[in-house]
Amino acid sequence: MSLAPAAFILVALVGPPLWALYGLWRSRSTPPPTAPAAAWDWRLTIASTLLFALAFNLTFFVQELFLVWPKALTPGLHPVLFHNNHDWTGDNPLAELLQGTGALAILILGGLCALLLDRRPPRSMSARLFLFWMAFQGLFMSLPQAVVGAYEPRNDVGRATTHLGFTPEAKTAAALIALAAIVALASWLGPRLLGLAAQPSWIDTPRRRMLFALRTAGLPALLGALLVIPFRVPGHVIEAAIVPIAVAIIGSGWILADAWRAAPTDAPAPSPARATLGPPLIALAAVLAVFQIVLRPGITFG
C-alpha cells in the first residue's frame, strides 16, 4: 500500500477513535459536575440532521456547477449538468484540468462560510447551524479529493493534477497536506459547534462536550448522509451513498474526537436558542424537486 491511502486510513478511521479514547483517559480525573445536565433538546439533533442534508446537496450542486460552467466557456466542450454528476461531449486539452475546478470552488465556499461563522456568526440557532454545516461540507467534501487523487488518476483532482504535471511524489505531498488540514480544520470547527450549546451544563465537562458533539454533529452527520441518498438516485452506489457517508465520517469523526479538549468560542449565544424544523424541511423538499424534476434529465450548457 502506498503512503497516501495508508495515511488516509490512519487519519480518517484510526486516528479519531484513538484520540477520543485518549481524551476519555485524560479526563478521568476531571471533577464530576456539581449538577445534572439539563434535559437534551432533540429538536436540535433533528434540525442538525436536516441542515446537514441541505448543506451537502447545495455544496454538491456548487461543485458540479463549477465543473460545468468552465467547460461551457471552453471551445469544443459541451457539458451537461445532472442532479448527481455531470458529463460533456467534445474535446479540448483543458478538459482534464477543468476537472479540478469543482473541488476548488467548494473549498473556497467552505472557507468563506467558516470565516463568516467565526467573524459574523448569525444570531439564530438554525442559521448558525446551517453556516456550520456549509463550512463543514465545503471543506470536508473537497480536501479528501486531493487525497484520493494521489492514488486514483481517474478522480477529478487526480486528473487535474496529472494535467498540471504533478509527479507521484508531488501528489503524495498534496495528499498529506490535505490530511493535515482535515484534522486542523475539524479541531477549529469544534469550538464553533460547542458555541451552540443553549445550556452551560451540556458542555461543562470533557465527557459532556463529547456527548454534545455526538448529538449535534456525529449522529446528525450519519443520519443526514442517509437522508441525502434520495436526492442522488438513480446512480452508482458510490455516488449515491458512499460519498455522503464518507464526508460525514471524515469530518465529524475528528470534531467528536477532539471535543473533550475544545472550549466554546466567545461568540454571543444563539437567539432564539431553539432550532426550527419548518424552514429546513421546506428547503429540502424544494431542492429534492429541483434535483429530480429539473436536473435529473440533464441541462445542456454551451
UniProtKB/TrEMBL annotation:
Statement: the UniProt record of this protein carries the keyword Transport: no
Highest rank taxon of the organism: Bacteria
Coiled coil stretches, renumbered: none
Residues passing through the membrane, by range: 6-25, 46-69, 97-117, 129-151, 171-190, 211-231, 237-257, 277-295
Keywords: Membrane, Transmembrane, Transmembrane helix
Designated name of the protein: Uncharacterized protein
Organism from which the protein derives: Caulobacter mirabilis
